[in-house]
Write a structure and sequence with these properties.
The protein is an alpha/beta fold. It has helices spanning about 15-25, 60-70, 95-100, 105-110, 140-145, 175-195, 230-240, 250-255, 275-280, 285-290, 305-325, 370-385, 385-405, 405-410; strands at about 5-10, 40-45, 75-80, 115, 120-125, 135-140, 145-150, 155, 160-165, 200-210, 220-230, 270-275, 300, 335, 350, 365. It folds into two domains: about 5-280, LarA, N-terminal domain (Rossmann fold, 3-Layer(aba) Sandwich), CATH 3.40.50.11440; about 295-405, Rossmann fold (3-Layer(aba) Sandwich), CATH 3.40.50. The strands form three sheets. Strands 1, 2, 3, 4, 7, 8, 9, 10, 11 and 12 form a ten-stranded mixed beta sheet that branches. A four-stranded parallel beta sheet has the order 13-14-15-16, covered by helices on one side.
């Protein structure tokens, strides 16, 4: 049976009608939300930003979804989020962003609690066949709920290429468990996580979306849509298509789609409501915008280039530069994603197993995806930099940022 994903237009800023229509077209909530159900509404508030900016879930979308759930008279409803705790950046305050975003005002207006998942009681969930994390600490509020509705905003992402309804669930990890996932390899950690926990339903806020690195307002894209679906993977595949992103370029989506019983491609998805083709745009990838900062580094990417390598390249290139080797990276060529017909000249590094045909061309970081330290090391080898120095600079910078913002993890 095909998984249904709906697309509706937000007319005259009427989020409530657009959400209700989208959910009804996608099959409705009554079969999912019963009178004894404990329901969590999970927006994406992973940025210090205002509602309507496109960087976070619009508070009007959160309100519309919560009202719809309340109409079904479940046992309880909460709005819950645990914002970013930082990896190459400092931690943010969930309490501050709940207020700044207008989400707390929505909760107060509707008479439902707001839960800070970063401060929630952690519960260890075992991963049966782990790639990166054999145990994941998830907020008790999430695990004790019967229904979790992911309400993300539609965005590109600088480490995974896209963040929609599945990636939004990363906020359900308690506090610095998110950071641990990054340290162990974010893309494989996401695959581990989604093997044990996924949302029950997805309602995607595509009113204002974000491309690039989420700079406001220049990276905002006016889309004016709501998406909904019972299957979050299918909803995310459609969300990627709206942004012009192939789902296979999102590592965790590709890996999930390869598993038995999952949607494999659009032949397993029924899109209803508005036309996907009529609304699809071409968003600028976050990685392309990130690499604009390093114009002398040449990225030669093939069709297999995905978020698995993106995540590790972002940190490696940044910290090699920050350690004082920016000039040494001038004219460096990075081969990634199995490019074809490449003319090799100058310093070259090869990233990822899919580019193994070029392994004789320069230092190569193996793995799918490769480890951050391996990517950093081969870049240093190619340009004659001291990898241990770069790692020291990286670790000191991260520790300084984490220490400076540690109180935010608790608030």
């Amino acid at each position: 049976m095909k998984q249904r994903v709906s697309i509706t237009r937000i007319a005259n800023c009427d989020f409530d009608s657009a959400v209700r229509e989208a959910v009804e077209l996608a099959g409705g909530l009554p079969e999912l939300v019963k009178r004894d159900s404990k329901v969590v509404v999970k927006p994406n508030l992973a940025r210090r930003a205002l509602s309507g900016s496109g960087a976070i879930t619009d508070a009007r979308a959160t309100e519309a979804v919560t009202r719809l759930v309340l109409d079904l008279n479940p046992a309880s409803v909460v709005i819950a989020e645990g914002t970013a705790v930082g990896y190459d950046d400092g931690a943010l305050s969930t309490e501050e962003i709940l207020s700044m975003s207008g989400t707390r005002a929505v909760a107060q207006r509707l008479g439902v609690p707001c839960v800070n998942l970063n401060c929630d009681e952690p519960v260890a969930v075992e991963v049966p066949e782990p790639r990166a994390m054999d145990r994941i600490l998830v907020a008790k509020t999430i695990l004790e709920s019967d229904v979790v509705i992911s309400v993300p905003v539609l965005k590109t992402h600088n480490r995974t290429n896209a963040t929609i309804s599945l990636k939004n669930m990363w906020g359900c990890l308690v506090g610095t468990e998110k950071r641990a996932g990054h340290m162990l390899g974010i893309n494989n950690a996401l695959v581990d996580y989604f093997s044990v926990l996924r949302p029950s339903y997805a309602v995607i806020d595509a009113s204002v979306a974000m491309e690039g690195l989420w700079r406001s307002p220049e990276d905002a894209r006016m889309v004016g849509l709501i998406l909904a679906g019972r299957d979050a993977l299918a909803a995310d595949v459609v969300g990627c298509a709206l942004m012009g992103i192939h789902p296979y370029s999102v590592f965790y989506l590709r890996e999930l789609m390869a598993r038995p019983g999952e949607v494999r491609d659009f032949s397993d998805i029924e899109v209803v409501g508005e036309s996907l083709e009529a609304h699809a745009q071409q968003f600028r990838p976050a990685f392309d915008v990130f690499m604009d900062r390093y114009p002398n580094v040449r990225i030669v990417a093939g069709p297999s280039f995905c978020g698995g390598c993106v995540a590790e390249l972002v940190s490696a290139v940044r910290y090699v530069h920050d350690a004082g080797y920016g000039e040494s990276m001038k004219d460096l060529t990075i081969l990634v994603g199995a490019p074809e017909g490449v003319e090799i000249e100058g310093a070259v590094v090869v990233i990822g197993e899919c580019s193994a045909v070029y392994e004789e061309s320069g230092p190569m970081a193996l793995g799918c995806p490769p480890a951050e330290d391996d990517v950093l090391t081969v870049i240093c080898d190619a340009i004659g930099a001291d990898a241990s120095l770069v790692m020291t600079v990286r670790d000191e910078n991260r520790r300084r940022m984490w220490d400076a913002t540690s109180e935010n993890v608790k608030g």
